[in-house]
Automatic annotation (TrEMBL), chains A, B, C, D:
Name listed for the protein in its UniProt record: HD domain-containing protein
Organism encoding this protein: Saliphagus infecundisoli
InterPro entries assigned to the protein according to its UniProt record, in alphabetical order: dGTPase-like, HD/PDEase_dom, HD_assoc_2, HD_domain
Any one Pfam family match given in the protein's UniProt record, by short name: HD
Chain ranges of the HD domain: 50-160
Amino acid sequence: MTPVKDGVHGYIELGSLAEALVDTPAMQRLRYVRQLSTVQLVYPSANHTRFEHSLGVYHLASRATDRLDVADDLAARLRAAALVHDVGHGPFGHQTEAAIERHLGRHHDEIGWLLAETELGGVLEEQGLDPDAVAESVDGRGPLGELVSGALDVDRMDYLVRDAHHTGVPYGTIDHDRLVYALRTVDGELAIADGDVATAESALIARTLMNATVYRHHVSRIAGAMLDRASETLLADGAVAPERFARLTDAELLAALEEYGPTADLAARIRDRDLYKRAVWIDREAVPDDLVGIDYGRTGALEREIAAGAEVEPAAVIVDSPTEPNSPESRARIAADGDLARLEERSSLVAGLDACAREIWRLGVYAPADDLAAVREATESVLGLAADVAP
Amino acid sequence: MTPVKDGVHGYIELGSLAEALVDTPAMQRLRYVRQLSTVQLVYPSANHTRFEHSLGVYHLASRATDRLDVADDLAARLRAAALVHDVGHGPFGHQTEAAIERHLGRHHDEIGWLLAETELGGVLEEQGLDPDAVAESVDGRGPLGELVSGALDVDRMDYLVRDAHHTGVPYGTIDHDRLVYALRTVDGELAIADGDVATAESALIARTLMNATVYRHHVSRIAGAMLDRASETLLADGAVAPERFARLTDAELLAALEEYGPTADLAARIRDRDLYKRAVWIDREAVPDDLVGIDYGRTGALEREIAAGAEVEPAAVIVDSPTEPNSPESRARIAADGDLARLEERSSLVAGLDACAREIWRLGVYAPADDLAAVREATESVLGLAADVAP
Amino acid sequence: MTPVKDGVHGYIELGSLAEALVDTPAMQRLRYVRQLSTVQLVYPSANHTRFEHSLGVYHLASRATDRLDVADDLAARLRAAALVHDVGHGPFGHQTEAAIERHLGRHHDEIGWLLAETELGGVLEEQGLDPDAVAESVDGRGPLGELVSGALDVDRMDYLVRDAHHTGVPYGTIDHDRLVYALRTVDGELAIADGDVATAESALIARTLMNATVYRHHVSRIAGAMLDRASETLLADGAVAPERFARLTDAELLAALEEYGPTADLAARIRDRDLYKRAVWIDREAVPDDLVGIDYGRTGALEREIAAGAEVEPAAVIVDSPTEPNSPESRARIAADGDLARLEERSSLVAGLDACAREIWRLGVYAPADDLAAVREATESVLGLAADVAP
Amino acid sequence: MTPVKDGVHGYIELGSLAEALVDTPAMQRLRYVRQLSTVQLVYPSANHTRFEHSLGVYHLASRATDRLDVADDLAARLRAAALVHDVGHGPFGHQTEAAIERHLGRHHDEIGWLLAETELGGVLEEQGLDPDAVAESVDGRGPLGELVSGALDVDRMDYLVRDAHHTGVPYGTIDHDRLVYALRTVDGELAIADGDVATAESALIARTLMNATVYRHHVSRIAGAMLDRASETLLADGAVAPERFARLTDAELLAALEEYGPTADLAARIRDRDLYKRAVWIDREAVPDDLVGIDYGRTGALEREIAAGAEVEPAAVIVDSPTEPNSPESRARIAADGDLARLEERSSLVAGLDACAREIWRLGVYAPADDLAAVREATESVLGLAADVAP
């Protein structure tokens, strides 16, 4: 057992499988992918990476499988899945996810190909694990796969606490110790003990509050949207092949964007934190349903239309309309008298939290500081929205 | 300025008024009144006192009055009120509150008499403060009095964080720094900046979760009910005069109860943590409205009736039916565009949290371990309740 | 396994033996004995008790015996010893230790009699443990007894971290996780791995700094000396029998002192923090060797002589000359290449820390504020010391 | 005032000067320079940057100038100096310092040229500050310049606590609050109050222990030495101009090394954490004085000689012989009775800590895993050392 010191969990003990996995380039790469991508532009101390997060998820998975007395084989599979669960992430994590899916047709949780093509698969096989089974667990399928990806998985338990530690925002400090203690299996399904509804709620609450103050902060959303547009250009123009794109680190992507003429300006703006501003920022009630979560094609069409109306470059307008939030935690199972219920059936808070999540939703239209007035006016005209609720 | 080191806030600077107040016996007494009374029987590290809490409230009040640029005179009054706000508490704080009110007709927030009768009043006057004005602030009245006692007062900001620190339960770690930053005055009324609804919600959430896991923990409720019954006996029998009772420390009350025959058994049980158990523990839905928050007289009548039915001593039955929870935080003002709204109008969470608070309500009937079955049966018969939802 | 939440270690799991021990009155009493006795008069949040500390020591002992793969029988004995190691403490812990030794001839680590006379012994036997063997471990003797009481025992690991958490002074935050990891057994002797000399040093450093800022703070020393004199009077006058005295809680001792005429004034002063002040406070170099660590008889004689010279009541003078500090940690074993060395042989820091400990030594003479000048002058004359280095 | 949330200090308030400085590319670049360079290869959560550290140093400087009541003009200068003190750092901070000095002849603390050549100078002038005066303060010269760079500067106060927070190693948690409180000026010189010798010692201790466990960890030293050799090649071959080199970010340097053939292998090894190992690791006593802190020319000559002896590529041998440690903190001034003394004169610990620092000194010779035996043997022969103390 090799102990590794972690800022959040203290000592994390790596067994020989974990050590071998950690030594692969695919895992080492995660040292250079920030967990919270552009959030560091708002919370300067949020520079933690998917590497240390992966160690933390592995640690919690180990504790949970011990706690649940999972058979050795399955426990090893789940621990391995916890450790590698993020290797499929592209640069800047979620913020290039959509661009990668458009060009590769692959979600970051589908890591079967990665296990097949990189050393990771070989390491797993050497240690007697089936790479396909591990990939299945990463995707939340198979026996107890929901421990790795599910309503109350160890991924979320780690990131809420870790993001709180590194941003300095305390809302994420759920009681992960208690959550691990509260885990049960009922007929092979993962559940939370009945007396621990409040513990399960706390994870849901923490994510709702972290969404409001950290994950959906407008500065991070703007930088993310800028990254997405630049990434799309890079990929659509063939400047970087999608397979290579997906394996870049944060800094390598920024460098590639800076080197390629058509994206150089956006990249320099991100690097120097000279970001677009909000021309429009409208809450859910003021936005018609058909403008919520619109697809990329339509988004582009609107951007061009607004740009034309504002008489600015097409690249000077970014429309950002996310899908409505969902809360997987509300589907967590609660074990009561041998029965299983869903958290949303047992907790009066869930509906309130859902409404709260809906309330922080915003439609944003972003533009360089000089173009704000023109873009705002053009947006009102094109979208037929009264932007009097603009920031 | 004398710096005092605090486990929660770091250095707290006491000015000369604060130093003089702290040196009075009335304030020193608070070193011997635990902030969370019997919660230490569940969370063994919860031994912090109303003394250190008072220093913390003073500290936050100082930061808030600085932040709000309150005029010197008023700021001094508010800081003094923050510091002395708990001197009216009896032994074991809230857990003897009802007994004291029954026998003295006085709530712990009414401290005018204390200021008049003890050195505190003299100290205030020497420093140019009007004791009545300070007492008014403690009660949440007068200019900015709500900073000391109101929807989002510094009292709550301190105790949520302090209770989290000392119990080890992380739900109370609200962002008190941010809350102090978010304070505004609008036409002399205290409000939270519009962009900080999530910060205000977090305080409400923290209290809801701390209620569920700490403040309303059944072991603490049982010990509290036992204390209340013993205190009532002591006072009703005239064994201790109510004025003296109200000024005892935790340990002095326990000693008085141990020395007086009729209460010696209850006192020994509390001291040795040999508590009554739950014979019945029923949630809100299963309890008719007229059994919620019943008064002392009716509670005693029910206890005697149940004891008769169970053929046990009257003292062997405790009925505990608290009033329904309320959430003063939901009335916090939010400043938006010059207007003021209430948090409950701006936050979808409030209704969910109210429902959640209602959900953790329980009617309890407690008895010694040997009498549980008999008392349960008698309760079912007397109250006409199906106790199949007993613990 | 019953999990108990602790403010320092998170969840502590109690096995059935631990639960049974915790339920005894002897253990419950420790809830009412503060870990740092009168230090709370300086650091107001230092109200943690020997009860929670005992749980913490048990927790670290459990982790250490797991780590060292100790045989089940011995592990159970060591864990039990860790849990009960403080039951022998009198009220206010170390501050009544000397008075108890004078009148009972017994040190607080000798708990054999307690195990024999109280329920604790029965509980141990029921669970198959020999009370004498447990008492031996508490005293640091027998196999691995030094884990409970020795150069680097789990007692110290817990209290340094816990005292830091509750005072807010960060110097005590040693890396107890690392220390437990670093433990080895070499030929049945406890040792620290060679690569962890810095970890062992850190414990020594932490205690040295905590001594300087917390444990030997002059306010705490004054209150302790006042307690000792009052206790001596109580015991010498037969007002409380020594056996009963040794089992009192902090508050019970204060109450007994307040009730007994000759000690009532000292007790009220401690309660209201109206303490004696330093008339004299001289460092080691200025004090002749024969005045260092003087015995109780000679101390009393000096006090009377000084009081006569100052023309004040004998009780108005307290001479406080502690023995010179020692540092048991410096004898910790370091495992290197199969050999064992002592920390002091491997660490250049030890000598520096010893000198540092010597530097914070002070001879104090304390008196009521009004008598300071007279007592200072009389001390100079009686002891032949130039008190120009007085505070 | 714009509040920025920091994981260590909570809210940091930036005034308008600080905001304008932070918005320059020179400051934004520090977001991409890790504070602890390659330490993240040992402590995976040590990814904090010189950007957030700069904000922290600014925060402590603000508190110190408030505390010391420094005149507004000087306070502004010192705060500005604190904020920009690290802009002169090259990629990977201290680990490319020597290479930059060899090729640019400039130390990172000499930032006059930077202020002159970049926007920073203009921003300072706009706000009425003289760039030369600010540069002087960064270098520790001029009035109270030692607050920015001196025996007990705010730079060190911040990094010790921040490095502890992010590595998870608790030894760095000095009481920076107390240190700021303890600051005094005596005749314009910065000093620590006499009663706070222990506080000053604690900073020295913290750095000594952080050196042993973090800053001088052999894995970090190996990676640093590899970086230095690769940087030297890049610069000596003219592949990157020294002026440009000094302004790269961590990732940009790694990319440049990966792209340039002769350094590609070293760069890939650092990226994938496939580092050289210790062929030789000898402590101070076993090394003759003339091999301690040898210059670059002689180091290269020895490497070539050892490589020849071992029959490996010259690049496969790295000799790493640091200079002996010094401890600037020991020169901190202590204010006593109007006099000033040095910490080393008042503290018995300093000598012990110096000896301790000497003890952790090691001469290392590093090589790829396959060449270890050959390189070890050749080193013994070339240096005439018995490497029996190798790792």
